[in-house]
Amino acid sequence: MRSGYVLAPLLVGLSFSGTFSGAVAAENTSAQDSSGVKKQSRKETVVKKTVPAVRTEQAVADEPEQVIVTGTRDPSQTAARSISPITIIGGNQLRATGMTDIREALVQLSPSISREVNGSDQGSVIDALSLRGLNADQTLVLVNGKRRHTTAAIAVDASSQQGTTPVDLDMIPISAVDHIEILQDGAAAQYGSDAIAGVINVILKSNNHGIHLQAVNGGYAAGDGFTTGENLNAGFKLGNRGFLNLSAEFKHQDRTQRTGIDPRTGKNNDLATGQPQVTRESIETNFGYHLTDAIELYGFGTFTHRDAERWAFLRAPSTTAADGLLGMYPNGFEPVETMPENDYGFTLGFRGKRLYGFDWDLSSTIGGDHDTLGDYNSANADAYKETGYSPSRFYLGSYSNQQWTNNLDIRRGVDLPFLYSPLNIAFGGEYRRDTYSIGSGEPLSYYLSGAQGYQGETPQDAVNAARHVAAAYVDFSTQIVKRWRVDLAGRFEHYDDVGNARTGKISTRYDINRFIGFRGTASTGFRAPTLAEQNFAAFISSPNYATGQIAANSPAARALGSPGLRPETSTNFSVGMILNPLPRLHINVDGYTIYIKHRIVDGGYASGARAVEAYAAAGVDTSGFSGDESAVSTNYFTNGASTRTTGLDITAHYSSDFGRYGKVDWDAAVNFNHTNVRNIARTGEGAPVLNAQQISLMSTENPSNKLIFGGTWRQGKWTVAVHEIRYGHTTSNLTFVSGSNAFSTTDFYHQINRPRFVTNLEVGYQVLPQLHLALGGNNVGNAHPSRVPSFTADYNNNLYDTLSQQLSEEGGFYYLRADLSL
């Protein structure tokens, strides 16, 4: 551990969970119906309430209800009466996990959310998550209801997230979160591309008073990976007409090492496997100001700078000698990949009421991500052989993207005599401009074999791509009779690069009585190929193999049989049941089926001579690779298959009151999930574009089920929270790195990962009215994923199956958390 960080500034903001103002829209409008015709006499009055720590959609029947803004454009919709399955997770509960970023907290709290064990290269830095076992790009992320931009760094290496450029949740300060609404239902007809698996809407704090500080310091059972996170949140009044909320955050995590004994050195000195070293600084602001009683100016934004370092595989002295680099590194070396990154997102808008009876919201959002790639402690072996000189530090290039989104959303309630409640009519439009670019590195970073660790982007790889997207939608919702609610939505989108998309959704809910209700949804959706998927190219070499990506629309990819990319399309069906058998017991059961056609995957594999020829057509020279030609492989993105995902979500919540012995809030949630891969596409030569490994990445790497159960006991100044997480089994197809099948793209080792159990425990005490301290541990038993055989781990650089999406390979994490409220 770094002593300079130990128990850095104490004192944590007992996270404010103030009353949500209801002014934020679900990417559209949340203004209350001002038509004057709302039939309050025939509906229960909605009272907004403080967001609870973790709640499923069913609230206690006789208590005020939480208004939601995700998955609906009805401003009176509550979580308890949601027409679609939705989970609310409070900001307090996120921060109480001891995690310093949103993704890691969500993994501890939601059984529908999973993440890969550990990525490689820049993919290991990005906080990508999966919802319902689908790809990270198939979940839409909103902030205050507005579409969030994605990362520019693509996941390069083979993994469950290969090829994704998802929203990086680590770029949103966890201290700024009031609550998160997770819509577990297809919603492309409401929000557009990417909302196939569901929607995660991050609602920012809007309190106008108070200062809250938090500090979390901890490390892993192995004695490494020291992590410190400090944050501050403050609220201010803007006169009597508005608010300003500010957050600032600092995070540092040391690298971890999860490798075995390297047979070349006899030591455990390879640092390639484990979490990267990351230092991040973030700021956030959220404000609203009523210019008049009917018009509000609002805005919010984040800016984050992150420095990340990722160790590449060790070049032992024997490997260094084979590369002719003993003159530079007589004792071997291990390159370190660096990625300084700047990420920003800003929204400014106006919303108002009673304009000819309509509520309206006009906004503009701009966001982007810029990554600078580099490495040090490296060398270009070919340059050194030819000239006797090679730099040890390289500029490898850059990745950038930007998304500019403009929305106009209009809503009105219309009173019709034959309907129980007003017909809520919403419509609007969106214009978006996406850009993506790759900048080439310095010449020696890509000359012949290029920089060791991660080869620089070549001038042939450099690209500046852009597209324009226009969309229009309409949404109708109402209660036909007292207990029957219906919602219809339709959307049309035009992409100037991949064409048109038309999507629709119908949802309904019928409550038989206060104890039981039913709901169901049928919808269509789509996901347009990202500009990164269409244009990304790279080449990576290691001591034992060379691999990389060629652009899907390039001549090199077409020579291998690539037809180019088109959008994914989906059909979603879900049916659910809401049960309230006891006053404080609430159960929700939701089953779903998701059909996806033309899934974009990293397929089209080629190896050996065909891969070398493809690289040559793309302008990449592989002659500097010192290994055998059979260890050279390549691939491209393609619409490789169709899938069917079926599953079941069950959630339950119960509150117990033991009088002077305290109160306990019990909760349990489980997700069952299975994906079948079908209709695998073929290359021009008739070969399947997906191999067994690619199929397993989509179908069996995600746990077949995930169960979270436990409770939180409160008595006086004490709080104790205990939760057990069970990850169901997974199976992987691992690459052989030795023997007759070494680096085969057709034969793999079938790894079975048995279920794993993880226990999370936290004990807290209210030291002062303003100060709360907590000592906790995630995975207190220090459980790990399944071990893998040495013939699938290059020089024992992997101890565990890192393709699986069960628990993290890092082991137990123990922390001290302090919260201060002023």
What descriptive keywords fit this protein?
10 helices; mainly beta; globular; disordered N terminus; 822 residues
What does this molecule look like?
The protein is built from ten helices and 35 strands. The protein is mainly β. The strands form five sheets. It has a 23-stranded antiparallel sheet that branches. Strand 25 and strand 26 form a beta hairpin. The longest helix has 9 residues. Keywords: Cell outer membrane, Membrane, Receptor, Signal, TonB box, Transmembrane, Transmembrane beta strand, Transport. This is TonB-dependent receptor. Belongs to the TonB-dependent receptor family.
Q: Give the averaged pLDDT, no decimals.
A: 87
Helix content: under 10%
| Residue share in β-strands | over 45%
| Helix-strand makeup class | mainly beta
Main beta sheet strand tally, sense and closure: 23 strands, antiparallel
Radius of gyration: 26 Å
Shape: globular
Q: Helical region count?
A: 10
* Number of DSSP E strands: 35
Q: End-to-end distance, in Å?
A: 31 Å
* Parts with pLDDT < 50 across at least 5 consecutive residues: 1-64
Family: Belongs to the TonB-dependent receptor family.
Keywords: Cell outer membrane, Membrane, Receptor, Signal, TonB box, Transmembrane, Transmembrane beta strand, Transport
Membrane topology: Multi-pass membrane protein
Domain TonB-dependent receptor-like beta-barrel: 299-780
